[in-house]
Amino acid sequence: xxxxxxxxxxxxxxxxxxxxxxxxxxxxxxxxxxxxxxxxxxxxxxxxxxxxxxxxxxxxxxxxxxxxxxxxxxxxxxxxxxxxxxxxxxxxxxxxxxxxxxxxxxxxxxxxxxxxxxxxxxxxxxxxxxxxxxxxxxxxxxxxxxxxxxxxxxxxxxxxxxxxxxxxxxxxxxxxxxxxxxxxxxxxxxxxxxxxxxxxxxxxxxxxxxxxxxxxxxxxxxxxxxxxxxxxxxxxxxxxxxxxxxxxxxxxxxxxxxxxxxxxxxxxxxxxxxxxxxxxxxxxxxxxxxxxxxxxxxxxxxxxxxxxxxxxxxxxxxxxxxxxxxxxxxxxxxxxxxxxxxxxxxxxxxxxxxxxxxxxxxxxxxxxxxxxxxxxxxxxxxxxxxxxxxxxxxxxxxxxxxxxxxxxxxxxxxxxxxxxxxxxxxxxxxxxxxxxxxxxxxxxxxxxxxxxxxxxxxxxxxxxxxxxxxxxxxxxxxxxxxxxxxxxxxxxxxxxxxxxxxxxxxxxxxxxxxxxxxxxxxxxxxxxxxxxxxxxxxxxxxxxxxxxxxxxxxxxxxxxxxxxxxxxxxxxxxxxxxxxxxxxxxxxxxxxxxxxxxxxxxxxxxxxxxxxxxxxxxxxxx
Amino acid sequence: xxxxxxxxxxxxxxxxxxxxxxxxxxxxxxxxxxxxxxxxxxxxxxxxxxxxxxxxxxxxxxxxxxxxxxxxxxxxxxxxxxxxxxxxxxxxxxxxxxxxxxxxxxxxxxxxxxxxxxxxxxxxxxxxxxxxxxxxxxxxxxxxxxxxxxxxxxxxxxxxxxxxxxxxxxxxxxxxxxxxxxxxxxxxxxxxxxxxxxxxxxxxxxxxxxxxxxxxxxxxxxxxxxxxxxxxxxxxxxxxxxxxxxxxxxxxxxxxxxxxxxxxxxxxxxxxxxxxxxxxxxxxxxxxxxxxxxxxxxxxxxxxxxxxxxxxxxxxxxxxxxxxxxxxxxxxxxxxxxxxxxxxxxxxxxxxxxxxxxxxxxxxxxxxxxxxxxxxxxxxxxxxxxxxxxxxxxxxxxxxxxxxxxxxxxxxxxxxxxxxxxxxxxxxxxxxxxxxxxxxxxxxxxxxxxxxxxxxxxxxxxxxxxxxxxxxxxxxxxxxxxxx
Lengths: 622, 484
Hints:
heterodimer; A: mainly alpha; 2 domains; two-stranded antiparallel sheet; transmembrane helix (chain B)
């Protein structure tokens, strides 16, 4: 089986699974089972893909006669490469774990089948983005993901807050997509082809189709779209609100799809991005602001699920910052590697907290105190997930974060990009991340004797998930610990990092974790950092960005719409009403003229016509 | 004088006459065999229609006959593609009217008159000399007066009288115009060469212009263009409905064919200086007045046949619009527009008859159509489609295409003001038809008219016409390509 066949199947299989699941929606459990089996088949396929993946620098691309649309060639090609295979494998794995978890978590939901179908379609869209070697296919996958995220976040659409979160996610990402689409269209127009390789060839060489400033502007537009989809500043606020969706949906959106898609697309466009200094500065500053701000907000959340959401925002900023600072020799693979490891440990964390929330009946930190004691696996999974999140050495997150640090350092000393700012932000973020990871650990594993586990919902009386879920969690935990071994396979093109960086991060992590540890006496270390009630509320509301969106964007747009509606109703329609009135008046006069439709009147009109005709003749007689 | 004769080209006009003669003979021998007569008439029309097909599908060979010998030979009969299309449409619309009259009720008078009218219409569009043209034009229109009056109703007689008065005046004008034309050009045939020769001399030019304007006035009666339209609402509402349909379809096709014949020689002089400004001015006045008057009057009608009558006046303006360019493209566009209008008008009249039945004089208000689409989906659907085509709104695409085709020659000739008026009239025209269209989709009321017992033929005509409209809407190039 060739790598190309694998990539076709990886895109096609989830689509088929989504259709089959939707067709079986009358029997939700069977439908969910079909989705799970298909996703497991995808995992097997992706694993095969890892073995048959082409070696470095030998991306395989399907060769096909391009479709000619006007002056634009559209090859519609899928491709396969080493990093692609690795990313596809982790997407398939996370999707499978999410679906297995969903079968247990949403067991009694009447729309389980629709949820599973949406998850499958979502996976297909992400697979399309990963494998696409054509920007139109990328765009299709990108938009389908936006739509699926709307469906998943709003799954519990009977809840007002879920509906609002879904709308917010959709509208915010759509607004950013304006930039994405414009950028893609500009790149395609310059290259005369939608093929990724043609676009890269056209725009990365010394003689671009337009000036370098135009290239920077187009890439900056693409970056704006990526910032929206990846919930980066200033679009960050939709992601924490999206926690209104079911936890498996959050796991999928945060770990392997949606927010990670931006990294994949920018990695594909990296050969152009590296020459577009304006776009790199935009990306670097936005990610630097985001990673620090989001990490600080994560520390102040009263809800652990929202803490994880802010941590995702911060971690995605870290991977994107690697793209902003990487030099041409380093390439995009450090970012992809961090995306890979983030997918593993973030899905583990989300699925664990989903389990714990079933036990505790809530995701609030107060309710989750000591919830980890319910099962040994929960404690272990939570611990290793948080270790990876904090970037502890040797676990998967630590390795990848170290490479991002090295990349930023090389960028800072090697080229004129935003490397210095990003490096500083990264170091601060490491401290903050360790602090909130420690806090999450302290809260969940607090040595409390829980009175009785009956606080769980009626759906899951024991609070114990099925064996399949436990197995999925175990797999993810093991991968979190030993996932760094993927570097041995050489799928990611990454250089060795220095020991000194490891020591430095270890020191920073110790500082962050130590501060949290020292603040443990108050029960939740957060209370030591965010003291007043007002500040806590501000942190929970993400510094009031929602209000800013409404005041600065939504209200002016609505006001403008009202003005347009007024103009349409009172001015444009005025002409229409005037035309109607004048037609009515003209009709009244004409009818008066035809009141006597008798032969005499007819002859009278004939005479009139004759006079006119004769008059014309006389007038033209010279 | 010897004439070359090609009987094949003359057959579309001769076959209805033959059928007419046969009917008279059969009726004299067996007076009770009325169904046979109807079948004979139908066969006559169908056979004549079949004879027009070679002109549609044939190659570009000139299809001329009744020619005088060379060197300065003149041909008095032209059976080209445009002519054949119009002939086919005239014959088929007459056949549709025959179906509307209904087989059981069609008397020998009706059959004879219909066949005579069809034969005259077929001949006038092919005629290229003024004598044939004048005689056959009257042959096409005079029998219709008898058909209108052939009812013992006071109102019908009144309508026929109106039509007769106007027809007589029209005939007088046409004879005058013919005489002036021969005086101006010295040539009884309508050819570009003789007109161009006459155009070089100022006096003859003025006379030729006057001749054309007078001929236009005479033809404007047949087309019911404003200010020669006064007979239209009276006659259409008081006469039998099938004959109104005939006046709105077959007669219009014959009239536009006759007008095309008169305007064809102007190809030779349209680019000269001074150009034929008088003719253009006369056409523009007729166009603008017809469009605006017809539309605003139709807007105020509540009686459906009167509404259709006024819409006929408005559509006459649209038919004349492309002719203002005095080009080949303009004449073809006028033919296309008339074809589309004739089919849509026939469908509308057939639907009205299918709803009200034979005694259609009473209660033909718009309110009687409330909820028709639910009560009677077939008729309602056909009527809705016809109204959309007349308004030029999708899904009646062919109506829109016809309007664009009609606008194009006028625009390319630089007659922007006329085009602007046409657009205004089109917008107002949408209001006319949507008024009717909208009531079709309401809730049915209790006092809806009872469904007539015998309406199969009317329904058939409506549905076949709708099918033609649907096919033409899906493939507009079929119809547009037919004449270009």
